[in-house]
Design brief:
10 helices, two-stranded antiparallel ribbon, hpI Integrase, Chain A
């Protein structure tokens, strides 16, 4: 598997979201926004059903989502932040009727099947290209982008390690995609 990079520019992230929102395809917009705000692997995002994020009895979004990670088998709990909830709400409004067992990112092929990983990567890559994101982008870029921007805002690596369910810090450090520019920023910041 090729190594992919996070999207380091907040402006480019905002351009990407505006582009997807402007396209009118709420499924694709929600896929990217949820990916950027959940730190989930794309395989776990694609397996989400409406019952995972929406409480049908209370008629409201859940505050936390529980998933069993497909790759590791570990349980993960994450907060649906305002951006993620807002994107899912836009999709819900666009769809109208949803069912507790429906996949959120439903494919147009077949009855109730999620889009494929291949389709997700196609959506992510083509959208990034459309807004001029030059980094080597893949599905994991969304997950890495979350970590990179968390780290830039001062979230300690041990917290990110726990968030990602990583067994050691070296894996988490790889996820952060620290560049020479980031290292140079430290030298600019610390002038003793």
């Amino acid at each position: 598997m090729e190594r992919v990079e996070p999207i380091r520019s907040v402006k480019k992230i905002n351009d990407l979201k505006k582009y997807l929102l402007g396209s009118g395809n709420m499924r694709n917009y929600t896929l990217v926004v949820l990916g950027l705000n959940s730190a989930l692997r794309v395989s776990d995002i694609l397996n989400l059903k409406w019952g995972d994020v929406f409480d049908f009895e209370e008629n409201r979004f859940k505050t936390h989502v529980y998933v069993k990670e497909k790759k590791t088998g570990k349980n993960k709990k994450f907060l649906l932040n305002q951006n993620a909830t807002g994107a899912i709400l836009k999709l819900k409004r666009k769809l109208g009727h949803i069912n507790i067992l429906d996949y959120i990112f439903k494919s147009r092929e077949g009855q109730n099947k999620p889009i494929t990983r291949y389709m997700a990567i196609k959506i992510i890559k083509s959208s990034c290209e459309a807004v001029g994101i030059k980094e080597h982008i893949g599905c994991h870029s969304l997950r890495k982008t979350f970590g990179y921007h968390s780290w830039k805002k001062g979230v300690p690596i041990p917290i990110l390690m726990e968030l990602y369910n990583h067994s050691n810090q070296s894996i988490t450090k790889l996820y952060l995609g620290i560049s020479q520019d980031d290292i140079d920023d430290v030298y600019r910041l610390i002038e003793l």
